[in-house]
Amino acid sequence: MLEVSRVHTYYADLHVLEEVSLKVSEGEVVALFGPNGHGKSTLLKTICGLHSAARGTISFRGTDITKSPAHKIVEMGIAYIPEERHLFPEMTVYENLMMGAYNQRARKTQKKNLEFIYDIFPRLKERKNQPTSTLSGGESRMVAVGRGLMSEPSMLLVDEPSIGLSPSMRGVVFNSLEKINREKKITILIVEQEIRDALKLAGRIYMIKKGQILFERSADGVDVKEIEKAYF
Amino acid sequence: MESFISAIVSGLISGSLYAAMALGLTIIYGISRVFNFGHGVVALVGAYIAWLFVQNATLAGAPLLMGILVTMVVMFIFGYLIYLLAIGPLMKKPNWEISTVLFMLGLGIMLENIILQIYGPRVKSIPVFISGNLRFSNIQINWHDLAILVIVIAAILLLNYFFKVTRTGQAMRAVAQSIPGAKVVGIDIEKIFGLTFGLAFMVTAFSGVMLATKFFMNPNIGWDWMVKGFVIVCFGGLGSTSGAIFAALILGIVEALTTLYFGPSWVWPIWFIIFIVVLLVRPQGILGGRS
Fold first, then answer.
1. Which class for A128: exposed (0-12), middle (13-18), buried (19 or more C-beta within 10 A)?
2. Starting at the edge strand that comes first in sequence, how are the strands of the sheet with A2-11 ordered?
3. Among residues A104, B69, B143, B226, which is most buried (max CB within 10 A)?
């Protein structure tokens, strides 16, 4: 479904991604692990068009999207859920979710998607008329996930969904991602620091270090110690 | 007492005109963070285009309506092209804040001189749409002034509706609040910026026509209008539409009362004293949330 092939990315002179290749198949959940500042988020941003690859190719369902602008990539069905959330602070929860359905394709299914989101996050339904600047960190994360789902994606790129959340809120977010994958058949590529939580969700993992793929494994029977060791 | 009430009324009318004029400035700044230093001249170009339609009329009426429509269409396209050909490319470069300011300033000076070449330096004015007065006991209001007030309020409501309800308007608000957020939901930022410049130029040109029916115009009056616009948007809070409207009404009334009690030459000093006090006490403006 998604194929990243020998991608190089720079931030000014900083060589962030070196020769990164990865594949995600239809319906899979793939987790990306790696220390902070080693290129995990940059990889997601490069895929969704917020950042551009200097070399290499990225293709989605057989179409080359390496040079496509971010809004075209959303239209093709990839939704990026940023770690920083980037909500619209003066808009209500409802307005934020509806902005998620901005692309032509998503507007046909916006009612159904909104119901699904209120179903997995009942809290958002309670707060639908509140501006998002008044929400807690966990609630804002729910809006970010919900807004991504409103774009009617076939693939979600989720960047550190649990960061800064309490353990119970973390559970809510991970359960929702599991449900999204199982019920909506949405493929997920997730960057996460909570290795144990992510391993319950993912079928496969990639380890990134210093901008390169260190290894790729099936999540079954993966040794958590081995992953943790790779962090140092 | 009557003169006091008359001053308040006339202050509200000029305030509503200033509000209309400040809107274009605050729309561009709020959405793209570009400070339009050619703003006043853009308004003036709009007024001169409309003047072509009414130059031989004694009562503006229908020809002015034609003129306004043509001006608005022309200025929308002009704004869109300015973004596409100049501001857009400049915004992709480092130090775009200062380079876009200088570009708009240069464009303003150029347009001012084009106006001077075509129309000459003499003072012009657009005739009123309707003549006659409305009387309440001892206070009288021109029908024309009342019409200005109604038109400006209608324009502000229409604009508000546009931002709240239409897809493009919502996308503009989204871009104003978070550019990365807007990209993530699939908004084509370039297109929205282009439309924003088009919309702002159109609104600004419209306000220029309104100003020229109430006051007079010559090729360099645009800079005066722009300075007023700057004071208003800083007073109201940069990028805040409701703040700009509020500030414009206050300053309009201040202007009228100052003229009544101290004389017109005190208007600018008093405006700037208020302006400086606001900047010192509340630098984000009276209603502005963002710094």
1. middle
2. A14-24, A2-11, A55-60, A63-64
3. B226
Using CA atoms, how far residue A6 sits from A53, A78, A108, in Å, is 10, 20, 36
Return all residues near A211 (Cβ < 8 A) that are at least 6 apart: A15, A16, A17, A18, A20, A38, A39
CB contact under 8 A, A50 and B183: yes
Residue ranges in chain B whose pLDDT is less than 70: 58-60, 287-291
- At A175, the amino acid letter reads N
Tell me, yes or no, if B290 comes closer than 8 A to chain A by beta carbon: no
User: B2 CB near a chain A CB, below 8 Å?
Assistant: no
B188 and A69 in contact by Cβ < 8 A? yes
- Selected for mutation to probe chain B from A48, A96, A102, A145 (highest B CB count within 10 Å) is A102
Q: What angle do CA B1, B2, B4 make, to 5 degrees?
A: 65
Question: Cα separation of B248 and B236, whole Å?
Answer: 8
Distance of residue B186 Cα from the nearest chain A Cα, in angstroms: 4
Tokens read off for A136: 């807690």
CB B25 within 8 A of CB B248: no
Q: Do A91 and B181 touch (CB under 8 A)?
A: no
How far is Cα of residue B256 from the mean position of the Cα atoms in its chain?
19
Residue boundaries of the structural domains of chain B: 23-219
Segment B212-231, tens digit of pLDDT? 998 899 999 999 999 999 99
- Under an 8 A CB cutoff, do B177 and A74 touch? no
The band of A183, judged by pLDDT with boundaries at 50, 70 and 90, is very high
* Residue with token string 């000014």: A12
Task: With beta carbons under 8 A apart, name residues in chain B contacting A49.
Answer: 183
DSSP letter at B58 equals S
Summarised one tens digit per residue, pLDDT across range A20-58 is 999 999 999 999 999 988 999 999 999 999 999 999 999
pTM for this predicted structure:
0.91
